[in-house]
Write a structure and sequence with these properties.
This protein is an alpha+beta fold. 35% of the residues lie in helices and 16% in strands. Helix 6 packs antiparallel against helix 7. The longest helix is centred in the last third of the chain and has 15 residues.
Length: 240
């Protein structure tokens, strides 16, 4: 099943930017398997597909996964018990099995918000008002904490930076000029250590190219969407 067939089956229209990414093979991370990291990943690093170096995310290129996930969420016996007024179309997941999805019931003039749906909570969170802003947010958040678990990590910082600039090159056609400028400026920084204070009053030490606080500031300034970061119970109707 391809994107056109999914659109027909679920009566949706994917965002144009997502269709362009699919047409340009930017959703293709190669065939997964035991040798992916050794055989496929080194080649992908030269021309990174969509969010290869994103923050704990795996983009789905297999549309059967999308169809299966949609059908599961629509099942009345599904453990998430998602209210039928919501129309979520997943396109990726993280290592914990949480989903990233388009929320088509909020679609407006071709702009489809992107939400995060945890596997163990009844609340979803709005991450961006459109897919372009979601990509930008992911690229920002992926460099707040840099360690050996980062997909773009290399022992030499110059090689690590090369991975990031390779990614920016392949993602530039899908971002605004301002977004590219911001990312380019951040990628040129040296990695630095900083302390981050969390809302509960505790703090932790980490290192990256940008702090969590700066990312929050950039997001609030650059991503214009009234429902940004809103959390909502997806088991309840969105209608008043």
């Amino acid at each position: 099943m391809n994107l056109t067939e999914l659109e027909q089956k679920y009566n949706i229209q994917y965002p144009q930017i997502y269709k362009r990414l699919a047409e340009n093979n930017m959703l293709d991370w190669g065939v997964s398997g035991s040798n992916w990291y050794h055989d496929t990943f080194p080649k992908l690093k030269e021309n990174p597909p969509l969010l290869l170096f994103g923050y704990d995310i795996e983009i789905w290129n297999d549309q059967e996964l999308v169809e299966t996930s949609i059908d599961e969420m629509s099942d009345e016996e599904d453990y998430r018990n998602i209210h039928p007024d919501y129309q979520f179309i997943p396109f990726a997941q993280n290592g914990a099995g949480d989903l990233y999805a388009f929320q088509f019931d909020l679609q407006n003039n071709g702009e489809v918000p992107v939400v995060f749906i945890p596997h163990d909570e009844e609340e979803a969170e709005v991450l961006a008002g459109n897919f372009q802003d979601f990509i930008f947010r992911q690229l920002l958040e992926s460099v707040t904490e840099i360690d050996e678990d980062s997909m773009f990590y290399e022992e030499e910082e110059k090689d690590l930076k090369q991975n990031l600039f390779n990614q920016l090159k392949t993602h530039e056609p899908y971002l605004t000029a301002k977004q590219v400028e911001i990312l380019n400026t951040i990628y040129q920084r040296d990695i630095f250590e900083y302390t981050y204070k969390v809302p509960n009053g505790s703090s932790f030490e980490t290192e990256g190219l940008v702090t969590f606080d700066e990312v929050e500031e950039i997001i609030s300034q650059q991503l214009s969407f009234e429902q940004l970061n809103r959390r909502f119970n997806y088991t309840e109707s969105p209608k008043p």
